[in-house]
Design goal:
Layout (H helix, E strand, L loop, with lengths): L4 E5 L5 H12 L6 H9 L6 E8 L2 E15 L2 E13 L8 H16 L5 E5 L4 H6 L4 E2 L5 E5 L11 E3 L8 H6 L6 E2 L3 H7 L8 E8 L2 E13 L2 E11 L5 H14 L4 E5 L12 E4 L4 E5 L3 H8 L14
């Protein structure tokens, strides 16, 4: 007898069952009830699309997108970012993965008036998104790894480590510089994005030019194979010309705190010049785009997006 399945919207009471499915299917410990609540239901954009497939009253799969405000080619735009699509082992091969994804896409298009989709996919889902969901490869931001430098010990500090994000004056968020072709972030976004971090895994530094604050740098502590380094998650800058100074100060902070280096996405304003002790990584991530039609998708695929690591849900 063929099993009947239902496609339904996810609600907050499904969190524990979704987390258990993620753990049992992919040993994904990060996709837990607390993360689901924070990442989707507490998102200040108040926009997301969450769908589940139910078989015999049990959740056997899910698809999600989290939605954000972007500025793309000078226009304020709503963007959906598909982030988690999964079906249980026993239901795979039945086309439910595709049905779940297209439910979220249709929901975003018809109910939320969204026609731009941006996503970072893993090696398994990338071919599916390209071949079945009609995504195109976007211009993946270049990743730099700036190594520890002893020379930074001789540079004068022009930064101060903050105790918390609450030390940033609310007026600075309102007057901060916004990149084109990037997410539009305000005070509520930053406080939401870093709510689950602690002083041990996140450093926020204020960067100065004499007595004037140029901006702030958000640096996440990462450890791989016993080696600690920093990830530049976000920058809040007073203007475009302060970006390079904030990045340079982040490198100095990283070395003086004895981290192995700093990872960052390249930005259009990153004019700090060539460095000997820097690793340049191209196509490090699978960055895919989709618009309202083929021509729109092609336009999106040619854009140099100004991304930060905070734009990824996996960091």
């Amino acid at each position: 007898m063929k099993e009947e399945y239902l496609l339904e919207k996810i609600n907050e009471t499904d969190k524990n069952e979704l987390a258990l499915l993620a753990l049992e299917t992919e040993n994904n410990k990060r996709f837990n009830a607390e993360f689901i609540q924070h990442w989707y239901f507490d998102n200040p954009s108040n926009s997301f699309s969450l769908w589940k497939v139910v078989v015999n009253n049990k959740i056997e799969g899910y698809a999600t997108s989290n939605n954000f405000k972007y500025k793309i080619n000078g226009q304020d735009t709503k963007v959906a970012m598909p982030q988690n699509v999964l079906t249980s082992l026993k239901t795979r091969g039945k086309g439910l993965f595709n049905k779940l994804y297209f439910k979220t896409e249709a929901d975003n298009i018809n109910e939320k008036n969204i026609n731009v989709f941006l996503t970072f996919t893993n090696s398994l889902s990338t071919p599916i998104f390209i071949n079945k969901f009609n995504y195109l490869r976007g211009k993946c931001p270049i990743v730099f790894f700036n190594f520890f430098s002893i020379a930074n010990f001789f540079r004068k500090d022009n930064f101060r480590l903050l105790k918390s994000i609450d030390e940033i004056d609310a007026s600075f968020f309102r007057k901060a510089y916004h990149f084109d072709n990037a997410a539009i972030k305000d005070e509520s976004y930053y406080k939401w994005r870093y709510h689950q971090y602690t002083k041990k895994n996140l450093h926020i530094i204020a960067v100065f030019d004499k007595k004037n604050i140029l901006g702030y740098s958000f640096l996440k502590v990462e450890k791989r194979r016993g080696i600690k380094f920093l990830i530049l998650m976000d920058i809040i800058a007073i203007d475009l010309f302060s970006i390079s100074a904030i990045i340079a100060a982040s490198f100095v902070f990283s070395s003086k705190k004895f981290y192995a280096g700093t990872v960052l996405f390249n930005l259009e304003a990153n004019n700090i010049g060539k460095k000997i002790f820097r690793l340049k990584l191209k196509e490090r991530f699978n960055f895919l785009v989709k618009g309202e039609n083929d021509n729109h998708s092609k336009i999106l695929s040619k854009i140099d997006f100004n991304m930060f690591f905070s734009d990824l849900d996996i960091v």
